[in-house]
Design brief:
eight-stranded mixed β-sheet, alpha/beta
Amino acid sequence: MSDVGHIGVVGGGAWGTALACLARRAGRQVTLWSRDPSISASIARERTNAIYLPGIALEPGIAAAADLADLAKCDALLLACPAQAVRTLAKSLPGESPVIICAKGIEAESGMLMPEVLNEVQPRRRIALLSGPSFAEEAVRGLPTAISIATVDPHLGRPLAAALATGAFRPYWTHDVLGVALGGAVKNVLAIAAGIVEGRGLGANATAALITRGFAEMARLGQAMGAELETLTGLSGLGDLVLTCQGPLSRNRSLGAALGKGTPLARYMEGRRQVVEGEATAPAVLRRAARQNIEMPICTAVDAILHKGADLDDAIRALLARPLRREGE
């Protein structure tokens, strides 16, 4: 694959819109499709996405697709939808061009990572995965952002990175699809835990310990599944974990902070259009960990708080009461 001149973006949320703008700045022809046609029209005609990126003027020249079939002749498709919608949309993707998955999570029903879902639905499609520490609002404003593009196709990573690289937006490519996919999924669950620590007022020491011990859980599971430690300590693993646990724009951290202050999950989610991926991913992560016989106490506590009615303070006390052990175990 030598040139990616025309990029199709599937999804008109914050991240899909930001990626469409970045691709335009990199000199690509861009066509965007959204499930909500009013969003596509607003981006194309008014250069705004008032629902997901309010107050930000978007790059001109982004075409609006009325139907997914309009993306059939694109050189590459960016699948920028919530993780739980990947399977449904993947079944409808037109053409034969490579698909770059931009969703982070694990499918709740099947327990599959996003590349596994796409491989099952479209086994002949060339795929890549885009992930890393990247708040859409900062990336679209031109603030320095570095991400990973993972693909097992040796001829795909470099041209995809070149197609999206512009100014302060720097893609790096890797072959470790599993590591990139897992890091992007687990960090969302851990960010909910970091938010709970914040909302409960447990302090900076506790946050630092949470991120460190949470990364240890991610690394244990990742290595047991065959991911490379270099990937897990890189942008899409540790980098994204730090951002999502501490960044003020993190939806997962914000959910955790609300829970920590006593807001019930159902009340917090009322009327919200943006998905909080860690909520659905938590039990799926634990199912994957059980297959590998890997303990993930922080993720287990988050799942218990979200889905099993566990008391916050009891869950925190249980974590602090775990047996002392040598660091690294």
